[in-house]
Design a protein that fits this description.
This protein is of the alpha/beta class and 556 residues long. It contains 18 helices and 15 strands. It has helices spanning 3-7, 61-72, 91-99, 114-148, 153-164, 190-201, 251-289, 296-302, 327-330, 346-359, 387-405, 423-439, 454-459, 463-473, 482-497, 502-509, 513-527, 534-550; strands spanning 16-19, 30-33, 47-51, 77-80, 104-106, 168-172, 177-180, 210-213, 224-231, 235-243, 314-321, 364-370, 373-379, 409-413, 446-448. The strands form three sheets. A five-stranded mixed sheet has the order 1-5-4-3-2, with helices on both faces. A five-stranded antiparallel sheet has the order 7-6-10-9-8, with helices on both faces. The chain has a five-stranded mixed sheet with strand order 12-13-11-14-15. α5 runs antiparallel to α7.
Amino acid sequence: MLLEQLLLHPIFSGSTVIAGHSGLSRVVETVNIMDAPDIIHFLKPGELLLTNGYFMKENPEALLDLILKMNQLKCSGLAVKTRRFALDIPQEIKDAADRIPFPIIEISSVEHSLGEILQRSTSVILDNKNDELQHSLTVHKQFASMIMKGNGIPEIVTALTQLLHSPVVLLNSKLQVTSHSHHFKLPKFLPLVSAVETVLSSQPSLQTAAHLCLLDPALHEYRHVAIYPIFTYRHEGFLITFQPKQAPSNQHDLTLEQASNVIGMEMSKLQAVKERSRRYKNEFFSDLIDGFIGSEQEALHRGKKYGLKQKGKYLLLAAKKDEQTNPSESQTTNAAALFDERLISERDVQYELIKRHFSLLGEVFVMFTKNDLFGMLLFIQESKWEEGTFLKHLSAMTSLLFEQSQLSISLGVGNPVTNVLDIGLSYNEAVKALQIGYQMKKTRFVQSYQSKDISYLFRMIPDDELKQFYEETFQCFSSIDETEQKELMRTLNVYYDTQCQLVETAKRLFVHRNTVIYRLDKCEKLMGIKLKDATESLRFRIAFAIEPLLRRDPSR
């Protein structure tokens, strides 16, 4: 309890503070009686010393030395019965106690003995600790009950405001306001937040609670600030309250401590839910990219929650943190270094920074991770899409990300696709573009995949249109059995691949030349065309080129 609270108890009736009045806010943990020259070696922080001052009677200078050493030890104060041995405390000692400030209490007029004062004071301190414990348990139960009922962090902040009758604000690790009491809807309270943000930005690793007094005269109404860090497995931010004067008891701090603990638990729960959701998302995109989802219906069903639709146009990007090559760059303080790096997942910080900066581009996207890369699925709006402008915006984003957060990343950009099963193709193109950029020894670059072969054009055509073209082209083979159909189509495919060379076709099929001639004649009869006709040849070549795309769906 505070020294000024203890002195209000009847046991100290008749006592007078003769010096160090400003130090009455010191905390009293224990009370001790001692009257020996080497008394300082037996004192502890937070201890109030009761003495008759006998050892100082013949040596008043010893009192000044004792006061200075007790102040260094963070003792609570000195209560002395000066009349017992006619001890006279010089004015210079009182002045020194005022400067520190260190309380000196005259207890000669207290009717109780030092032993009685010790006993009753100890009882008062224990009763106060018991009250504080009960208060702490009650507050914790209240906040925990709110969480169990489904209330969130804003509700806890509101309840805390009502308990303390003071403005409350919650900042995240980037010193951004995430929740606040109703006070901050008024403009006059906003400078409080700015003042605290300025203080915290100069304190890179505030790990324990801190109490500050703001010196700005404009903030005199709420200049006393209590700051409590909030942790989960990493540093999450600060819970801050403002008061006109320093809190008169520990209950204020105990309430804040319990609130910060419960908020930390709620954040841990939210992070667990977020991590599980992110893991499911990463697993889905990994399966889609790696080809473990062969059906368009399955991809659309699982990807519905991420915005995937049957008719859409998608673009994949792959981002990676550049390796540190510049020694000075590695020494630069990045966004995560605002706080203790041991408590922060660097990859999570990078994920959130990239996501936040990419969202500023105004594009609709879904972000995921795969191995050591960050992937972004972009939903292209045909009416607003302009590739050159988008690449310029990406380049500006990487520069801004490095300028503001000292995070150096590079991006690879794939080609647009219209079928969800082609998302893997676009992603692999983005990865290849990223690799090309690194092979050229570049950093903070945006590299698009340049190679656009005929398959790129096919991916721009709706899948049902491709299927219809393919089936109409080979409709002529539907009248024969499946085995012969596969044989004739394979022969025709190799025939066109070898530029209509009979000998080369026979070699690749491991059959006699006459067998090839027989099969090609049968094809011409079934189709009613000449195989070397340029128009028909092109039609069948296109159909064969489409076939691998249609194989993505086993039902086809």
